[in-house]
Amino acid sequence: MQALMNRLLLIGIFVAGACFSPCVKAFARDHIVRKGETLSHIAVKYGVHRSTIIQLNGIHNPNLLRVGKKLIIPDKGASTITYTVKKGDILGNIAKKHGASIQKLVALNKLRDANAIRVGQKIKIPVGSTSPVTTRARERILLPAGDYTALQSTAVVPGKWKGVVIHHSATMVGSAKALDRYHRENRRMQNGLAYHFVIGNGTSGMKDGEIHMGDRWKKQQDGGHLKLEKWNKENIGICLIGNFEIHNPTRRQMDRLEGLVRVLAKKCKISSSQVTTHKIKHRNHTKCPGKNFSLNSLKTRLSKN
Q: Which of 3, 34, 161, 286 is deepest in the core (most CB within 10 A)?
């Protein structure tokens, strides 16, 4: 009899285990962190909030993400996650942190008083039902906080800027400082650096994805990156360090470029159709920014909410 009971118990455990795995998979999926990835990149990839990934995985320091770490990512079929109220929490902050409205949390949790939540209380947070990565949130995700603030605080001349033109430096290594020196000394440009912005690739003192805001942008001066004076008066010049005839831009360069163009387009009321490259602007004149830079890929990224 005891042997039979033990056998039945084992069968029960086996069945329970067989049921458990599909239930978990229906709610979430796994992501293995790869070199160069951040929580922000992963959140954008899956269309979920960075804070949701942090919450589900119990991450204490979001800035320390180990390569090879397995993360649970909420599936599109998942409707909620559970948040445990901590000391000092208020419903408004919880809602903001997870990209939800206070009204949604009140309705979902059948709260009588939004101001009367208590430490240890379980709060359901909606996920997957709406697209949580808004245009503004995506800009903030893709740009360092300091760059985002600097861009937002720089006053622009109303109606001056009509387009954005992308360039490459055509050199494997380089920096904004080196380009500025070249433009002053070799091209005799009084205002120095011909571009409004430069995005580094990790060489010559600029970090990979580092954005340099030039004086031409700070002072709202015409660029010096195009052949015609009229075009320089109307177009913002962005140069990515690298030779994209030989290699691709780095992932971080493309992330920063997307974030930068998003902010500039919004501030200057520039449509995506007016985001172009040096090669397209000067047909049969230059290969810049190289065959390995895809404008279509950039515009696809810009089209995402």
A: 161
**Residues constituting the chain:** 305
pLDDT in tens, 218-231: 999 999 999 999 99
Q: Please state whether beta strands 163-168 and 80-84 pair in parallel, antiparallel, or not at all (unpaired).
A: unpaired
Dihedral sign, Cα of residue 247, residue 248, residue 253, residue 258: positive
Separation CA 250–CA 240 (nearest Å): 10
User: What's the pLDDT tens digit per position in 238-280?
Assistant: 999 999 999 999 999 999 999 999 999 999 999 999 999 999 9
Helix (H, G, I), strand (E, B), or coil: what is residue 245?
coil
Give me 145's structure tokens: 């906080």
DSSP helix/strand/coil, 217 = helix
